[in-house]
Inverse folding.
């Protein structure tokens, strides 16, 4: 599975491309482990070019979500293709993740999160 | 050098001496560096020799011939001629000697090479292979030092130096890179601009090539007594080739072992999985029950289960994320936990079952980063009431008799995602002819060779069509579903387990 990693506006944007399944998931799992170390890793996974996801792919994203939250950050998904979106809805994992239409929306949400945190502090 | 003549050609010297004595000489002798090596007659006589002729081999003074007692004209010429002949003979003998020594050395090398190939039939590990190689090649080519570096894909770099680790790791990496770039034998000299400062005179670098890739290199440093010759290069290359063959064999062998291990694991996972599926289908008045589980080559985490409580039935269909042994193992845990919930009094509702199972399993599932989708349904035969809860599982389809098939969507997340599950109990009355299909996504995700999925929409359509035919029993529905999906997939191999449980409410009167 192809991927690119970029730092943008205080978040790490990961673009994935291809099939997210049993064979390609281990590589992504490692990647997410690397980028979800503290402090406060804010991850945005751009799923625009992901054509297929199976349970292993879902489990990998869930792991990334849990880890980033453990380190005081978060993981958001954006630009899900229709069949992929459907999988999330059928498993109700659309309730576990914050899913946004575009990368910019996701980055805005990251920014909003920062601001809210500052208000709390 | 001249002393060679004494070992091999004494009869010749005797004849020469005899002919001089016959012609009137009183003594014939051969002297090298002042020492008399040959004299006829043997005892030393009186008087100094009048005739002398120097011997020279390869342009260097090697001794002299001396004759006493002959002074006739032409005698000096004659002695000179004898000396020239003897010198030439000595030169030939010397060269012959040298050639013989070389031949013996070459034969030794061939024998050593033969030994190497013979040893290759033994099952040596890569490490043993390389350590044996380094000592042999160092000995064969008579060098001060030697090293071998191997960078095989699935392993860490292997590195051996002989006799001591005298070169730094970084420097060795540098030489490996050089030989990888050039992909041919190289001879480096200490004054070579690319090598910079070095503590050696000359180095022979040989690539180890496996399947047209340079996987490593052999380095030979400072040949004893000279420079690396063309024949060293030839021998070295032959050895490097042999080594490459051995390395290739080893790597293939390792790949084979990994493959066999994987196959054994798959067989075991299948075995575990098969053992845990219900042996018999329960009999419930007013209900036809059928089930199937077609595993893929790499077993997944699908399962189904039935627990009877009198005339009532609990049915569970589940799918653990992932594939292989890990999924099979978690499946056994999940099944056990769900089963044990059924043993408590009073019987928990499906939502309670899922909630309690999640509490038990959450920690373990989180640790291994997996989750399980589960559909739990409880059927009460007296009132034909189906109570169910769905934790992220699909496809589950309900088709009322004569009506439209619809997906029973999950309202809660799969087990293992959150510490607290949030599904809710839903209720449905199964009138005669109603069909419930609880399948796993191996059906909807089944792909054909063009990677087209069967899909949820089509699955829904197919269930609707099949259920609409009142003659289809639960069993024939199961069979036809498998047939249709198999038809769709064609020759494309099944990638995920396909599990299905079908309930069809029959006309039979339920018990009062």
């Amino acid at each position: 599975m192809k991927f690119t990693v970029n730092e943008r506006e205080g978040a790490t944007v990961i673009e994935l491309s291809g099939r997210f399944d049993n064979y390609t998931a281990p590589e992504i799992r490692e990647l997410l482990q690397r980028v979800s170390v503290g402090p406060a890793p804010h991850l945005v996974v751009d799923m625009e070019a992901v054509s297929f996801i199976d349970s292993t792919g879902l489990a990998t994203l869930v792991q990334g979500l849990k880890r980033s939250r453990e380190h005081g950050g978060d993981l958001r998904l954006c630009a899900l293709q229709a069949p992929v979106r459907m999988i999330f809805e059928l498993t109700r994992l659309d309730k576990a993740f914050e899913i946004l239409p575009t990368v910019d929306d996701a980055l805005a949400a990251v920014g909003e999160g920062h601001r809210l945190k500052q208000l709390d502090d | 050098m001249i002393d060679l003549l004494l070992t091999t050609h004494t009869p010749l010297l005797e004849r020469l001496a005899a002919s001089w004595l016959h012609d009137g000489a009183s003594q014939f002798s051969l002297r090298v560096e002042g020492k008399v090596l040959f004299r006829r007659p043997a005892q030393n006589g009186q008087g100094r020799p009048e005739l002398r002729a120097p011997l020279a081999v390869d342009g260097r003074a090697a001794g002299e011939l001396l004759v006493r007692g002959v002074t006739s004209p032409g005698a000096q010429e004659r002695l000179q001629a004898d000396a020239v002949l003897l010198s030439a003979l000595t030169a030939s003998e010397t060269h012959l000697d040298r050639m013989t020594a070389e031949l013996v050395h070459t034969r030794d090398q061939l024998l050593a090479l033969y030994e190497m190939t013979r040893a290759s039939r033994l099952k040596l590990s890569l490490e043993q292979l390389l350590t044996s190689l380094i000592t042999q090649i160092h000995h064969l080519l008579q060098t001060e030092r030697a090293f071998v570096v191997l960078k095989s894909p699935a392993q860490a770099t292997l590195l051996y130096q002989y006799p001591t680790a005298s070169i730094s790791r970084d420097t060795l990496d540098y030489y490996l890179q050089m030989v990888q770039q050039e992909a041919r034998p190289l001879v480096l000299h200490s004054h070579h601009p690319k090598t910079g400062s070095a503590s050696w005179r000359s180095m022979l670098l040989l690539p180890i090539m496996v399947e047209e890739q340079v996987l490593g290199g052999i380095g030979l440093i400072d040949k004893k007594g000279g420079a690396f010759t063309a024949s060293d290069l030839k021998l070295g290359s032959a050895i490097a080739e042999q080594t490459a063959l051995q390395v290739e064999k080893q790597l293939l062998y390792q790949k084979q072992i990994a493959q066999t291990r994987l196959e054994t694991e798959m067989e075991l996972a299948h075995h575990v999985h098969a053992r845990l599926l219900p042996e018999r289908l329960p009999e419930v008045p007013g209900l036809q029950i059928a089930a199937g589980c077609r595993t893929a080559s790499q077993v997944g985490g699908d399962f189904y289960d039935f627990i009877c409580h009198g005339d009532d039935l609990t049915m569970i269909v589940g799918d653990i994320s992932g594939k292989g042994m890990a999924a099979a193992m978690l499946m056994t845990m999940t099944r056990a936990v769900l089963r044990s919930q059924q043993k408590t009094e009073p019987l928990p509702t499906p939502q309670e079952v899922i909630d309690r199972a999640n509490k038990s399993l959450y920690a373990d599932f989180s640790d291994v980063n997996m989750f399980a989708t589960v559909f739990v349904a409880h059927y009460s035969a007296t009132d034909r009431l189906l109570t169910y809860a769905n934790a992220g599982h699909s496809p589950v389809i309900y088709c009322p008799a004569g009506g439209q098939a619809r997906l029973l969507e999950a309202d809660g997340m799969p087990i293992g995602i959150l510490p607290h599950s949030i599904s809710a109990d839903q209720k449905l009355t199964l009138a005669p002819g109603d069909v419930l299909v609880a399948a796993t996504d191996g059906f909807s995700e089944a792909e054909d060779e063009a990677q087209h999925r069967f899909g949820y929409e089509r699955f829904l359509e197919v269930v609707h069509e099949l259920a609409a035919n009142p003659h289809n029993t639960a069993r024939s529905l199961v069979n036809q579903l498998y047939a249709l999906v198999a038809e769709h997939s064609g020759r494309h191999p099944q990638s995920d387990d396909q599990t299905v449980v079908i309930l069809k409410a029959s006309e039979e009167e339920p018990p009062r």
About this structure: Residues 466 and 480 of chain B are 8 Å apart (CA to CA). The longest helix of chain B spans residues 230-276.
